[in-house]
Amino acid sequence: MSGFTRARAGVPSPFHLRLMMVEANGHVEREGKNGASYQGWISTRNSLATERKDLHHGTKANVSRAAAPHVRAWVRLVPARGATWRRAGLASGDDVGRVQDIVRHPSALSKFEQIVAASKGKKIVMFLDYDGTLSPIVDDPDSAFMSDTMRRAVRSAAKHFPTAIVSGRCRDKVFEFVKLAELYYAGSHGMDIKGPAKASSRHAKAKGVLFQPASEFLPMIEEVHERLEEEMKSIPGAKVENNKFCVSVHFRCVDEKSWGAVAETVRRVVREFPRLRLSQGRMVFEVRPTIKWDKGKALEFLLDSLGFADCSDVLPVYIGDDRTDEDAFKVLRRRGQGVGILVSKHPKETSASFSLQEPAEVMEFLLRLVEWKRLSRARLRL
Ligand SMILES: [Mg+2]
């Protein structure tokens, strides 16, 4: 299959990006040349496709397609500089001219005063994703360590606010990284929830919380993990991770030429397990139970466990960087309560209200929140 997309207009120095189509209904997110990046998803009716595309960006799109009649796609281009970015749409069988500007969400640091003002008379509860939020994204998922300074910031936050780590990782593994016994941990995308191992009088309400809504899937997850490990041996760089209630297949270190093979293999294996479903995160395929449980449900469960069910005097603050965190951002929007903060260097479509660029800014935000809380307590004592 071959073809190209071209979206062009009056912006000088058009740049070229190489876009590899990963899989049917696949999500793509990569750094491009000249500091630009692109994101998107591609679907094909012909199973897998790997295709080279040259993309130009501009104020108006004129998207045309020379071939690939069964391709549907949208691709978002993020220029290296400038406040706007573009989306070029491409629909099956048609030429499409469609461009949409997406404005970056305001920084949670620059809007800090607004955020703390919203917490007046309310109890802040912190929810933190791990990878890409507290730790940098690295090639080897086993080496995604958080810094000691970040650990100190999270520990300080937990002294003032009930704090939970909500991760796609296995709960034990994320605990090994974070090493803070005073936190709540929701592993496997919220399917494995445990309260603080170290009792805290301030957060005593949820002591002993333990919830595993997908326990019956454990043998099936074991089986799919073994099958995927066996299958991925032939693809250099692919890494299969057993996250207890879900399995991750990382392809960050796989040669681009083999991304299609990774996707095809994972899809073929998952088809044998109709009670499991496949989703995709940042350079990772995730296999998990079909039950309706996600990070958003975990957030609600923890709020209920903390005694904040149907309460108006709580302000949940959720910080995360991945598509799986969107479920939590949506819950906050639906409740009309709380602050969703997306961690991303680039603007993205998101249900979060604010953004932070990277883990270093997450740490700065946590420390400012702690300092604000400390000062407001001191003022109360005067
Ligand atoms: Mg993450």
Short note summarizing the structure:
The protein has 382 residues and is α/β, with parallel strands linked by helices.
What global shape is seen?
Answer: globular
**What does the largest sheet look like?**
8 strands, mixed
- What is the H-and-E element order? EEEEHEHEHEEEHEEHEEHEHEEH
Count all strands and give the number: 16
Derived from helix and strand composition plus strand pairing, the structural class reads: alpha/beta
Strand order of the largest sheet: 9-8-7-6-5-14-15-16
What is the third-level CATH name, the topology of the domain at 111-213 and 293-380? Answer: Rossmann fold
The fraction of residues assigned to DSSP E strands is: 15-25%
Number of helices: 8
Tell me the radius of gyration: 22 Å
The named CATH superfamily of the domain at 111-213 and 293-380: HAD superfamily/HAD-like
CATH architecture of the domain at 111-213 and 293-380: 3-Layer(aba) Sandwich
Query: What small molecules does the structure contain?
Result: magnesium ion
Low-confidence stretches: 1-102
Give the termini distance in whole angstroms. 72 Å
Can you tell me about this structure?
InterPro entries: HAD-like_sf, HAD-SF_hydro_IIB, HAD_sf, OTSB-like, Trehalose_PPase. Its cofactor is a divalent metal cation. One of its GO terms (biological process) is trehalose biosynthetic process. Belongs to the trehalose phosphatase family. The protein is of the alpha/beta class. Among the domains are: 111-213 and 293-380, Rossmann fold; 216-289, Trehalose-6-phosphate phosphatase related protein, domain 2 (Alpha-Beta Plaits, 2-Layer Sandwich). The protein has helices at 112-118, 148-160, 171-178, 218-232, 259-271, 295-305, 326-335, 359-381, and strands at residues 26-31, 37-44, 71-78, 86-90, 123-128, 163-166, 184-187, 192-194, 210-211, 239-242, 247-250, 276-281, 284-289, 314-320, 339-343, 354-356. The strands form three sheets. Strands 9-8-7-6-5-14-15-16 form an eight-stranded mixed β-sheet, sandwiched between helices. A four-stranded antiparallel β-sheet has the order 1-2-3-4, with no helix packed on it. A four-stranded antiparallel β-sheet has the order 10-11-13-12, covered by helices on one side. It is globular. The N and C termini lie far apart (72 Å). Bound molecules: magnesium ion.
